[in-house]
Specification:
The protein has helices at about 20-40, 45-50, 60-65, 70-85, 90-95, 95-130, 135-160, 170-190, 195-205. It is globular. The protein is about 70% helix and about 0% strand. It folds into two domains: about 20-75, Homeodomain-like (Arc Repressor Mutant, subunit A, Orthogonal Bundle), CATH 1.10.10.60; about 85-210, Tetracycline Repressor, domain 2 (Orthogonal Bundle), CATH 1.10.357. By secondary structure, it is mainly alpha-helical. It is built from nine helices and no strands.
């Protein structure tokens, strides 16, 4: 349905609330910080380092985020909120199981080539959660959303192929996550066939997860 604006022509836009302005600035800081975090990783990144590589002062960064853990978890949540919807169009438009599997495999490769640093940061953070209790809640929350993302694809694949998933949601996610992490590591180490191998493995697994 067409939405008609009730604001009079020439009238100023609605005033944003203080909370909206606060959230907008935190998002701006997150976008700025992600580049530094993706390059340096968890251990080598501090609030001061982030400030030095952005347009924001150390004081501003510290005002919006109490410490490094709060900033990093916010950044990864912010990034992953977009990631978990990257396959939605494919799920909605694929008309055959093969089309869905091929599109999914291609997307896996594309996201590694385009966003390797961000995925590296995610795996770094997930490992750090083994040692940093403050990170665990956020990491488990993000991990669950990624599991649901994969499960939506599997359910649609099962529907298109007329079958049923062989494994549980958690097991299926673990399989694809392992494939993706191995492909990412091979790509980062310069393996020339890493992406082709990831695509082939993803297609092979797709053919075995539904019966």
């Amino acid at each position: 349905m067409l939405q008609v604006s009730t604001r009079a022509p020439g009238a100023p836009p609605p005033t944003r609330t203080r909370e909206e302005k606060y959230d907008e600035r935190r998002n701006q800081l997150a976008e700025s910080a992600l580049a530094t975090l993706g390059e340096l990783g968890y251990a080598r990144t501090s609030l001061r380092e982030i400030a030095q590589n952005s347009e924001f002062s150390h004081g501003v960064v510290h005002y919006y985020f109490a410490n490094k853990i709060e900033l990093i978890t916010y950044c990864v949540r912010y990034y992953k909120a977009t990631c978990v919807t990257r396959y939605d169009d494919l799920v909605a438009t694929a008309t055959t199981a093969q089309e869905l599997a091929t599109g999914f495999a291609d997307k896996l490769v594309e996201t590694i080539t385009d966003e390797a640093a961000m995925h590296r940061l995610w795996y770094d953070l997930r490992t750090q959660a083994m040692f940093e209790p403050e990170l665990r809640e956020a990491v488990l929350e993000i991990d669950h959303t990624l599991e649901l993302m994969i499960w939506r694809i599997v359910l649609r694949y099962a529907e298109l192929s007329g079958g049923e998933p062989v494994f549980t949601s958690a097991t299926t996610y673990a399989i694809f996550d392992g494939l993706f992490e191995k492909g990412l590591l091979s790509y980062l180490t310069g393996d020339p066939v890493a992406l082709d191998d990831l695509r082939a493995r993803a297609l092979a697994v797709a053919g075995s997860i539904v019966r």
